[in-house]
Amino acid sequence: MTTSPVALITGAAAGIGKETALAYARSGCDVVVADIQESALHQLVKDIKLIGVDALAVTTDVSDINAVKELHNKIMERFGRLDYACNNAGIEGENAPTAESSLENYDRVMNINVRGLYACMQAQLAIMSSQGRGSIVNMASVAGLIGFPGLPAYCASKGAVVQLTKTAAVEYAEQGVRVNAVCPGAIKTDMIDRITSKDPETEKQFAALHPMNRMGTAEEVANAVVFLSLPGASFITGQALAVDGGMVAR
Ligand SMILES: NC(=O)c1ccc[n+]([C@@H]2O[C@H](COP(=O)([O-])OP(=O)(O)OC[C@H]3O[C@@H](n4cnc5c(N)ncnc54)[C@H](O)[C@@H]3O)[C@@H](O)[C@H]2O)c1
């Protein structure tokens, strides 16, 4: 049991999730990190503990409902509370235009990005509504706000994340639980390296999608997640905040 706020982050082993875990730790939270990459999680726990807070790694595939239940049970057993959750685990899937994209890809992307996130949110809302407090931040994308050629299933999944966010926000507002989404533009992580194949010309084109003419950093997204999570954002719920260097403002 702990008196510090407890934050959970899924997909925490790399990229945006890892930076968010570290940012929660720097804000004074004990941090639970969940991912399918076990060894990277254990290194991250060591890094978080160096900041001076407690940390727990739980190897979890968010598309496995039993694993999701076990993750939340472990949090309650170990810490007895859950204050903040960032549902960040996600995949981009294959890159192909709609007519050529496979249904297998659609199922895989929706299973992790939407069904997995939904299962996590259900567990978190049950805990947080009984506590009478809590804040959830879901990782959507600008691809949930506008279309991107070659990523139909991914765009559909992130649009669904925005709508799940708004619905839960309205449902649980009176019970003291806030639910928001973050919609990053192109952020320099392994995911964007897979999409651009690190080709300098493609990277330049991705940068140019943003009025700031650059990609974002994982830390810039983490800062937005922590802002929306903490009590400073106490009157903000149901928002899909673009962290995109101005991309969707054009
Ligand atoms: N990088 C971007 O440009 C960008 C832009 C908008 C939104 N996003 C979203 O941000 C989130 C993180 O992206 P990233 O760029 O850090 O990606 P990443 O690929 O660098 O990291 C994703 C992490 O999620 C984990 N993961 C994948 N499937 C999982 C599963 N089934 N269960 C648990 N963990 C799983 C991976 O192991 C990895 O550690 C994703 O939801 C992504 O869609 C990324």
UniProtKB/TrEMBL annotation:
The catalytic activity of this protein is classed by the Enzyme Commission as 1.1.1.47
InterPro entries assigned: NAD(P)-bd_dom_sf, Sc_DH/Rdtase_CS, SDR_fam
> What sort of enzyme, by top EC class, is this?
oxidoreductase
- Superkingdom, taxonomy of origin: Bacteria
Q: Which PANTHER family match?
A: DEHYDROGENASES, SHORT CHAIN (PTHR24321), ESTRADIOL 17-BETA-DEHYDROGENASE 8-RELATED (PTHR24321:SF8)
Q: Name one Pfam family in it.
A: adh_short_C2
PROSITE patterns according to UniProt: ADH_SHORT
GO molecular-function terms, A-Z: glucose 1-dehydrogenase [NAD(P)+] activity
Q: What is this protein called?
A: Glucose 1-dehydrogenase
Question: What family does the entry list?
Answer: Belongs to the short-chain dehydrogenases/reductases (SDR) family.
Assigned keywords, A-Z: Oxidoreductase
Provide the species name.
Answer: Aliidiomarina halalkaliphila
